[in-house]
Records
---
Amino acid sequence: MESIWFVIWCILTVFQPPNLVTAEEPVCVPGFQSDQLTFSVTRNYLTRGTVLGKVGFTDCTDRTRFLFDTSDKRFVVKTDGVLMVKRAVYLHEGHHDFFIHSWDSQGLKLTIPVSVSMNAADAQVPVLQFPKPGEGLRRRKRDWVIPPLSVPENMRGNYPLKVAQIRSAEDRTRKMFYSITGPGADLPPVGRFTMDRETGNLYVTQPLDREQTASYTFEAHAVADGAGQAEDPMEIIVNVIDQNDNKPYFTVEYNANVAEATAIGTEVVRVEAKDDDESNTDNSELRYRILNQDPPLPTHNMFEINPITGSIRVTGRGLDREKYPQYTLTVQAADMKGEGLTGQTKVILTVTDSNDNAPVFTQKSYNSRVDENKKDVVVVRMMVTDEDEPQTPAWNAKFKIVSGDPDGLFTVKTGTNKQEGILSTAKELDFERASKFTLLVSVENEIPFAPGVSVVTSTATVVVNVKDVNEAPIFDPKEMLVVKPEDLAVDEVVVQYTASDPGTARKQTVSYKIMNDPAGWLNVDKDTGLIKVRASMDREAPFVTNDRYIATIGAYDNDAVPATGTGTLIIQLEDVNDNAPIIEQHEIMVCNKDPAPQLLSVTDKDGPEFGPPYSVSLQGMSKTNWTARMNNSRTGIILNLAIELPSGNYSVILTVADKHGLEQDSIIKAEVCDCKGEDLMCTQRALGGSNLPIIRGVLGGILLLMLVLVVLFVSLRKEEQKELTSKDNIFYYNREQSREDDQVNGHQF
Ligand SMILES: *[C@@H]1O[C@H](CO)[C@@H](O)[C@H](O)[C@H]1NC(C)=O
Ligand SMILES: *[C@@H]1O[C@H](CO)[C@@H](O)[C@H](O)[C@H]1NC(C)=O
């Protein structure tokens, strides 16, 4: 089929008048689609990257990309046919001519002359012919599909600029009128393209912006004068060719931290710029560079940037927060692979502290004296300095005793300022065991040193001289218990209680003295510590509790400033029957008729061993007038009148003995009254009665004083409650108060 059409087309072309041969026949002939190419420019100076237009070429296959060569290497044709300025060109005579070569499918080299001309008005534009059916082009729906037009964006010159011409073959025989419809023509953006009705010239009315609209598609129509539609509409696609008219730009400034000890090659931050030009073209192909590093210290290239990815890495040694706490990098992105337009940003890198400085002792050795026998005593304070950031774990010091203290007698802590080591005694030192220590103390930080940093751990030597102090003699045992009978004779030995002096370095003698002896019963031999009875001891004395008497003995040495140690002597007193029973009561009253028996209690200070059962007997004349016997438990005496005595005062002598027969006389004053049985009526008691009014007077005075105090107290409370009620408006208090008022009134009157 196609070959037949091809033959017909050949015949038609043979007879075609030469003036109708157009530069771009839409018929498939392998090779360039025109005999000559003219590209119109608006400036003499063509910068690198300028797109001049597109070179039409086909080998009549589906291939769309071809190899091109140029006789002038300042120009390049990309495989898609786009002609670009590779290196800047100046059009000395307003135009420049060269050749473009390509090869057909048989490998035959084809050449086309090219002219780049500054004269925009004479620019040769593509002519688009309405195709004839069967001319080898596909129809899509009812539109002809023809190669798209390419119009560079931002074209300079006098608008409207002619960009193409529409032709219909019919115009050879008839007058034709041309028009365009669709977006960019009569639809928004209306009027961007216009068409000369008579000539078919297609104009663009204003510079195009690819970043706004990259492509236009509208339809061209050809109408015969007075005959309506002569051709099917032709779809026209205008592709806006990208120009490098957008600078790369960064949307942000960058802030990042970089630790001092960051390893070389570590990424610090990654920057990214944008370019609104067509992606995947050189116009948006960015390359990154560091333009400036401030400060340029210690070297000017502390950082490097990956030109393609924008990743910034550490490349130089010597990051040092203490010297250069911050770097400002000026980073540039340039399109055209780094040769085109540029944009900049700042990258601020804050150098953060790493533990790259060791704490150092300000003094390498210390000498100190410390008393023996003292725990938690500060031996020495050692200062350190650290170059790292203060009050951080990389700065805070941590101390350690490295050697010289196998027994753990010392401890070292960090002072509150974190730059001071405080060495103190952890246990009591003993001059007699070791009088001198040489300690090695090291200092580090709370966190380890940064890897790769070479720092030396600082140490200090501390010589501790132990000071001998006069230690008090120590009693052995510290508390001594002896058991002795309470009736131990005066000058008898209680015990020998001795102390010894722990300070073996000194030749000292120990002497003794009584420190505390509440009852004054003891004597101690100054030299031997022998304790004897000085005054008779008594188990029943008030200083004895639970049979125990406690004394404190002192031992002191013969130092210029004597030290005294104490020991406690506890004498447990064994009971001895040294107390006869006594009668508690000293007076009784009894009626002389039918008298009630009187019960008298008997006690004995001695222990139960020397107590009840007791026995009682009446002495002398008392025997005739009284009877006395023990009650059933034999702890009480039942005393009674034996005969009716005249009223009056009598003395009854009773002898009471404990179970071991230790006895003692007791005199009971007995008042015999004229009465009967238990109904005591003693008329003679006028003497005792005279006291009563005095007692009443005293009691009355006390009552009056109390009353005054009560009144004072109540009125004070009243004041307080007034405040309360006025503040809180609580009625409960009001009621309370009025009740109290009543009470107070009642008291006063
Ligand atoms: C015993 O009673 C008589 C009176 O009957 C009296 O005279 C005498 O003094 C009394 N003896 C003693 C020791 O009270
Ligand atoms: C005997 O008298 C004593 C002393 O008043 C009393 O404590 C005790 O209970 C009496 N014993 C008897 C069996 O009544």
Note: The pocket of 2-acetamido-2-deoxy-beta-D-glucopyranose (ligand 1) is lined by residues 621-622, 624-625, 645, 650 (CB under 6 Å).
---
Amino acid sequence: MTQGGSILDADAPVAKESEVDALKRRLHKHLRHSLGKGAVGSTALDWYMALALSTRDLMVETWMDSTHRAYANDAKRVYYLSMEFLVGRSLTANLLATGSLGLARQTLTDMGLDFDAILDQEPEAALGNGGLGRLAACLMESMTTLGIPAYGYGIYYDYGMFSQYIDGGQQVEMPERWLRHGNVWAFDRSDVTLPVRFYGRTEDALDVRNHKVRRWLDGEEVFAEAHDLLVAGHGCWTVNSIRLWSAQASREFDLRRFNQGDYINAVAEQSFSESLSHVLYPDDSTSMGKELRLKQEYFFVAASLADIVRRFRSIHDDFTKFPQKVAIQLNDTHPALAVPELMRILIDAHGIGWDEAWSICNGTFSYTNHTLLPEALETWPVGLIGHMLPRHMEIIYEINHHFLEGVRHRATQPDDTRVGRLSMIDEAGERRVRMSHLAFVASHRVNGVAALHTDLMRAGIFGDLHREFPDRIVNKTNGITPRRWLQAANRPLTALITRHLGDRFVAHLDDLRGLVPLAEDAAFREEFRAVKRTNKEALCRYVDARLGVELDPNSLFDVQVKRIHEYKRQLLNVMHVITLYNRIREGRADDQPPRTVLLAGKAAPGYHMAKLIIRLIHDVARVINADPLVGERLRLVFVPDYNVSVAERIMPAADLSEQISTAGTEASGTGNMKLALNGALTIGTRDGANVEIGEEVGEENIFFFGLTADKAEVLRTKGGHDPWQYYTGDPELHMVLDMIGQGAFSPAEPDRYRAIVDTLTRHGDYYLLLADYADYIACQERVGLAYRDDEAWSRKAILNVARMGRFSSDVTVSEYAREIWRVPVRDDPAGM
Ligand SMILES: *Cc1c(COP(=O)(O)O)cnc(C)c1O
């Protein structure tokens, strides 16, 4: 943490005494009147709450203005539907947005309080697993900064992402009651509760005009209650909200049960329906296919659409202008039931004809695909949807029928296998609905999240759909918000850049180009190194406090932080660590600098292999870190409970960013962008957005290695891939695998990691670790040598920072706004 007044401190005292006094009065007012506490005996948590409430006060007027302006102008709204919003903490972000971080630090320090300890009181809003949920949060922030009237819609989970503890080297999941002390940033809207129906049956009926209609009746109802989470844009010119729904038992349903005199069971059932929004599914990149998950998906989609339609209908008498006023972005297929739900509303509730309803849907929806991994693609059994949502299943069948009719009509010759591949129903085995086909066909635009990923979509699983709708797939490379990931997370670097370029870059990230000439300036490089050093020391203090491990800030900080998944290849990283360990012991790495390898990330609770990899990291760390022959030259550390707040500490301190997924598996990545923006060099495969990062920073400023996506695909599918040959043909690799497989790191249980080695050598090595091993090791050797040249390394790192402007989520959002949503954006978010 920075000290007040330091040259690297962007929050150096500047506030007037009168401002400080005014903030003190506001804090004391909230402490007494909102929290019922006196200054005596107040805790850091109390001061956090008081400061958060004071900051919220600065946002509320703007929020109301933003909302009223959108109403008054009948502006087109953007609705971002997402099962996940990985928001993280909000206080620092909102203090910055409202321009009051410096004042707050000064005031609280003045009051004898520990400002950083107070910031640390905020629980993390971890309503997401990883990249997908964090993207939703970054896009919401950028939409707000760009003045777009936007609403996020999602679920107000009682339990977000679990906390990760490490016990004897193994992951233990603990539930995290993040709402324990309430949530200052959300307004609970007990007045906004909407009914959501499940189960029941359908029947034909006649409406008031004697037209035949379909009705959905009986079943059970759950209420969705709204909670509005505030999101401030840069400069707080606009404030939007994310409306998150919690489940409440239906009152009517209760009454019925209570009247039957079954009080205890009625209350028990009440909590059963309320359990709908209890917990986030902690599976990243896997669809577990659980019934409760499908229920959650429909629950939030139904409430959100009812809300969206109500807002539109408050101004419009009919639906003709719906697509001109409403853009709905589906974040992955999780909200894809929005498609049959909107059709149901238009047709069953408003008597609109099929074709008109379909064209409204098509003009309204767009869909973002996040992964091509087969295990992640959502499909649901026809029987399950038919039972839970009988009317929706009928509508999905009809959508499919119309779509396939069109396909047959357009075809030059009959091709039933092609029709089968395109169908929304997978007929192989138990019949299942392909949610991606539903979302694709209903949307006017479908986007991938990096150029390579979008190309692979067109060529691979969406190939048939792409040929049917050649203009539909577009690319929208992911981005990150520079407010959180540079301005808030890296105060020392922000201060340095601001002294040289001013602070306009915070909302115009391309301004960082102004650093390019400074990369040639030795004095600037010196300052840049001092900043990195400050950040590394701060991380060292954190790791020491948390793990009791002392790290050397002079060593190369080699960082891989992300969910633990085989495709991300943390195991390949560990294999490099063991290789380097062996080389050091054999005196074959004397030209290499001391290295600290940091890993962090959570494994899905049911993902055995991922958990085993976490355990291996701990076992390897124990052996290496205790080996006197290695001394300070190599350290391996696993930082537990990776989340947004931990990411904010690690990103600024990294020298090297590990982005080493098997080419063709990581759709985009955003951790890669956070690290490069904070001055880490990337070692990576040509995968996801790494490719575009390489284009921007220049091939000479990034370390690429390994198979390309097309070569990896050929190797895996066309045969000719013999992992055993790599194993027997490379003595170093052989040694590493034997050490893992034969218990060098787990002497008490020599077979502990047998399964890991077998996966590689005997079961096909699906993610091609062995094929990429030699090139990775050689590349790491080049990294080490490059790091020893301070000046050259800093030059590269500065050029990385300077050329990351394209990966601001402001750019991403501007492209969505222009090419998908067709809404205007504020030209000058910095208000300059
Ligand atoms: C950015 C971020 C991610 C995504 O990281 P990738 O390296 O792109 O997988 C996951 N979790 C958290 C907490 C993040 O901040």
Note: Residues 1-8 have pLDDT under 50 and may be disordered.
---
Amino acid sequence: MPTEELREAAAKYLMQTYARQPISIVRGRGSKVYDLEGREYLDFVGGIAVNVLGHGHPDLVQAIQRQAAQLIHTSNLYYTEPQVQLAKTLVEHSFADRVFFCNSGAEANEAAIKLARRYAHTKYGEDRFEIITMKNSFHGRTLATITATGQDKVQKGFEPLMPGFGYASFNDFATIEALANERTAGIMLEPVQGEGGVYVADRDYLKRLREFCTKKDILLIFDEVQTGMGRTGTLFAYQQLGVTPDIMTLAKGLAGGVPIGACLAKESVASAFVPGAHASTFGGNPLACAAALAVCRALLEGSVLDQAKRMGEYLAKGLADCKDRFQVVCDVRGIGLLQGMELTIDAKTVVADCLARGVIINAAGERVLRFVPPLIITQQEIDKLLETLTTIFTRRAGEEKDPHH
Ligand SMILES: *Cc1c(COP(=O)(O)O)cnc(C)c1O
């Protein structure tokens, strides 16, 4: 179907929940994707931090093909080896003792919220159920997770929201102290706020949060749906921020593009879930888990994590150079291959300019460009992005100086 026809059919048949870019992507290879007309794009979105191994990675493709031929799905009524192997791998490489599998980031956070409530109910009684989250956060689109998400635009029109949530200011410990009380069961936050515009949590703030939570037996929940799986240069972001959560959620990059989510916890917390307490039909099915195992192997046994760390530093430096050279760039922030560039102008127009020049990026908020490429991105590919941004910003600066141009 030609792109124009596809756009018309999409406008007719799909619920209109997305503002889409005007291209139809048909295939991908490495850090590049190709549209219906055969145009090549350098992919700095990576399915929004999902395609950690890029497109068509042979190990991932082979793992999926093999598992698809053997067994795609059974049910959690039975044991399957990929699910147990994946849980073992995640446990062996994190603080956690146990894993629950589901199918998305929102579901992983739902599981985390339910687990925190169950833990607090069991230990302290039914009055302890509140979860403190952060303003400007993003935790998903289910009713509980839009409530957890501290952004009006996500909640508007869906009220009444879930009871039992309060909002602190990110990186502001005093607002936690003001909100927390004997009803508080958990504090949930992203180590780096992704959708909210790429804001990194301070180490000191996290340390105080950790100490506070430990003292009060409040569960510290890290939403690593975006920051996990090597995005920040370590397998999980918490590993380089100097604090360990009690519960952690994963999704996006976990299976390199096959839908999966996971909620991980220490034994003392995980034991609040007993048979029948929580479930998911598709959760941890063999296909998704085989894909995730291939991703884990590439990160843990291959050179991908190392590459992500080096390329993250290279990208951050290149973007910082842009900030030094162009007035439209007012801030650059992030860790590893999760980088944000705040502009004085509308980010959408720069996204469109990049697309026209064969580079896919996206905006997180009105003025922030977000860069979350595959972790296999190369130095030359980063150079191409930086050249493209330089061309666009140079032209913009020229237009500003010469408005009649
Ligand atoms: C994307 C994202 C989610 C939601 O994940 P879905 O798979 O879209 O439900 C939750 N938390 C964070 C931090 C995210 O980046």
Note: The longest strand covers residues 329-335.
---
Amino acid sequence: MLTLLSAMYIVVRAASSEADPIRVLVTGAAGQIAYSLLYSIAKGDVFGKDQPIILVLLDIPPMLPVLDGVVMELQDCALPLLREVIPTDKVEVGFKDLDAAILVGSMPRKEGMERKDLLKANVAIFKTQGAALEKYAKKTVRVLVVGNPANTNCLIASKSAPSIPKENFSCLTRLDHNRARSQVAMRCGVPADAVKNVIIWGNHSSTQYPDVHHAMVNVHGKEVKAYDAVKDDSWLKGDFISTVQLRGAAVIKARKLSSAMSAAKAICDHMRDWWFGTLDGEFMSMGVYAGGNSYGIPEDLIYSFPVHIKNKSWNIHDGLTVNDFSRAKMDATAAELVEERDTALSFLSQ
Ligand SMILES: NC(=O)c1ccc[n+]([C@@H]2O[C@H](COP(=O)([O-])OP(=O)(O)OC[C@H]3O[C@@H](n4cnc5c(N)ncnc54)[C@H](O)[C@@H]3O)[C@@H](O)[C@H]2O)c1
Ligand SMILES: *[C@@H]1O[C@H](CO)[C@@H](O)[C@H](O)[C@H]1NC(C)=O
Ligand SMILES: *[C@@H]1O[C@H](CO)[C@@H](O)[C@H](O)[C@H]1NC(C)=O
Ligand SMILES: CC(=O)N[C@H]1CO[C@H](CO)[C@@H](O)[C@@H]1O
């Protein structure tokens, strides 16, 4: 019996230690978010402590020397799960056989650049990268778009990769979600994980709607509604919302650089939940494809919804009541996305 058990143990161990490495792409890999992100991924915080990883790092040609430095540092971390690091500026190398793609790189706004021109440049980037996903990645690849405008870039990538399910594309609003969670927690004097089920609706911009009507706070072991825990409706309907909406700008003003550590942490949270699922009774915010039958949001947008995740698949958490205050804010951010989508699609077809 003992021998049988130990034999089984050895078989199981051998099987798990021989798990095939997964291929994970990070674009914008020479940038500041990636610098905070790559270590967490490579040490197993995202895809699990038993999952070997091949990291593919894509950036533009002038950044290749910088990328070499990042590769050296990853090697110098001596991480057991990290099997290979592949720096490249070529999409055919970068997108090959991917299990996960984290698209961080995009065209930044430059001095005097018009909004439309910026959008046009990003449509071109995400059209190319979507087409590369279509051509080179696994059909089961999970794609997370971070580079702004994240929602619309994600839509363009998805449309450029028609054979990969729309459900496999998402954009990052988890940073906004984490900001909302933390603001409520600080206000109530509880740890961040004592607050659950905040929601970010819509675009990752200042029109996003951080909603705590369905959030719960664990106060001394008892779950109470956020509105009852905070006991300050005017803060929740006013400064709380604008603080979360404008947090990115506040960080830039203070740091003279945009959020990187917190963005990297949010990327890890998003991907880890996608891989391993959300807790029962909890939902997280994720920009996902709106099919036209959730909360009255127009179809064919990437819009941030509350989702729960099981078996590596997300579902929009349906059935929450939406009051007039929320409705107006959800519709305003949707209208912004519709307009941006229509402009982006006109560039896509050019
Ligand atoms: N969704 C969110 O919550 C969120 C939060 C923070 C930042 N962002 C966005 O993330 C992006 C990256 O931020 P950062 O601080 O790391 O910027 P960064 O400028 O430090 O790095 C961006 C990197 O992307 C690279 N890049 C540009 N075009 C590329 C392309 N076509 N292919 C591959 N790489 C390319 C650049 O060369 C650069 O190395 C920005 O668009 C930023 O607005 C999103
Ligand atoms: C949507 O949000 C992104 C990211 O902040 C922003 O770049 C974009 O301008 C917003 N869209 C519109 C139409 O305002
Ligand atoms: C998840 O997948 C497993 C096996 O693939 C299946 O048995 C289970 O029913 C699935 N659960 C859900 C919620 O889809
Ligand atoms: C939602 C999600 O992550 N999923 C799907 C990606 O595509 C494969 C099939 O190609 C599905 O099995 C996943 O569930």
Note: The chain has a mean pLDDT of 95.
